[in-house]
Amino acid sequence: MHRPLRWLWLSLVVIVLDLGIKALASAHLDYGRPLEVLPIFNLTLLHNTGAAFSFLAEHAGWQRWLFALIAIGASVGLTVWLSRLKRGETLTAISLTLVIGGAIGNLYDRLVHGYVVDYLSFHWGGWYYPAFNLADTAITLGAVGLILQSLLDSRRPKASHAADDKTASTGKSSADKSSSTGDDS
Asked: Which parts of the chain span the membrane according to its record (predicted)?
C-alpha cells in the first residue's frame, strides 16, 4: 500500500531539532552578542518579528498573524500535495516535508514568543548575512529540492510521459499492441 504521508516523520524530526536548538540558543547565548565559531561564522541570538531578511519586522505586530496564517496555509496545502504523490516521487516528498517542518517550527515561535528565534550568523569582512535558524535551512533545502525536481521533470521527453500514461491505463505497451493486431511492419 502506498502511503505518502509516512514522510511526515521527517517534518517531525525538523520540528523537534529546530525547537530544541532554539531553546539551547535562548538559554546559553546572550542576546545580540556574537559567539565566534569560525572566522566567517558566529552563533548570535536574535529575535525576528518579520519574515525572511526581517521583512516587515518594523511594523506594529500585525505581521505576526499574517505570517502565522501563511505558515498554516502553506503547511496544509503542502500536506495535501504530499498526500497525492505517487510512488517513487521521493525527492518531492522529502522536499515538501522539509518545508512543512520548517514552517511549523517557525510558526511555533511566532505563536508562542511573538518572534522567530535566529542564531546562525555568517559574515565576511564587514558584511553580515541575515541570521537564520534550522527551520529556515529546512525550508530553503526543501525549496531547492522542489526546484531541482521541477528541472528534472522538465528534461524528460513529453512524448514518453503520454506513452507511459497510455500504457499504464491500458496495461499494454506499443509493442504488445502491434503484435496483437498482427501488424509486423
From this structure: 6-25, 62-83, 90-108, 128-148
